[in-house]
Amino acid sequence: xxxxxxxxxxxxxxxxxxxxxxxxxxxxxxxxxxxxxxxxxxxxxxxxxxxxxxxxxxxxxxxxxxxxxxxxxxxxxxxxxxxxxxxxxxxxxxxxxxxxxxxxxxxxxxxxxxxxxxxxxxxxxxxxxxxxxxxxxxxxxxxxxxxxxxxxxxxxxxxxxxxxxxxxxxxxxxxxxxxxxxxxxxxxxxxxxxxxxxxxxxxxxxxxxxxxxxxxxxxxxxxxxxxxxxxxxxxxxxxxxxxxxxxxxxxxxxxxxxxxxxxxxxxxxxxxxxxxxxxxxxxxxxxxxxxxxxxxxxxxxxxxxxxxxxxxxxxxxxxxxxxxxxxxxxxxxxxxxxxxxxxxxxxxxxxxxxxxxxxxxxxxxxxxxxxxxxxxxx
Length: 378
Fold this sequence. Notes:
By secondary structure, the protein is an alpha/beta fold. The protein is 47% helix and 16% strand. The strands form two sheets. It has an eight-stranded parallel beta barrel with strand order 1-2-3-4-7-8-9-11, surrounded by seven helices. A two-stranded antiparallel sheet has the order 5-6. The chain is globular, with a radius of gyration of 20 Å.
């Protein structure tokens, strides 16, 4: 199993009570609560943690994109990936991912990702997403056009990477007289493409058909298994058997000396993530036109943060997060790996309001007590 350190880069100094009063940390939570001095320190703290993951032996580090939220400070993840491209010496760097429907010019991502692939000499992973519903409120994009804009932007980027230019492109949403990006990607024909999703059946079908790695976002393990089974079934329909390396699970892991200590230490920070930073009304998560009724019902039924608050103990019991001693974490992760059949864990070692010292101790424990067990078993 491969271990990637997935960072959300939250504004961990956020006023949680103010978020509670506002109803969400997204879109309508005023940026007057952002302190540039503290924010600047956080960027360096988080980048240092990503470099530390590389030094500890994680296989990769992950960034992602969200807009107008205290949940994550990465509206332009390529800026941070560029900062890491020379300091992360060994691990892969993944942007999971850029929200393609929000773009007015997808060729900018073709160029940006090709630059990152060159800078890392082929250690870059390109992630493409539609973005959650809140992004459409933030960027003023019609959510009903989401799937069409995503498909067209993806096709254009891949053509720009693989077809010698210049050529012209005329689509419904994008038109260019000249497509001829410099540089071209370092990897041939292009960087690996990974596709995170909340569990959209159309996205899973599309990713399996193109043999892209599918990444399930934070979900209970039974849900993860269901969506990974769906991917495997779609792969069979496409004429092949999907491998474990095509499936990645995004989770939170926290390790301490004992189960009791791990729970006591992690609990307030996980509560901050689940009950404040992730919280948003359903109309913001799934705006009208964003998805079909069937998918909306499925996502709502399996949503990590539902209308009914869940305790941290419930989250652990459902397999949405893993918290405990080294032995407990190894046992649970092996159980979930066997159940769902994934080859990569996208692990948030920092979540919510967790301070730097705790994060580094957690990363060190995972590197020393967890990763070797799964490398030896491979």
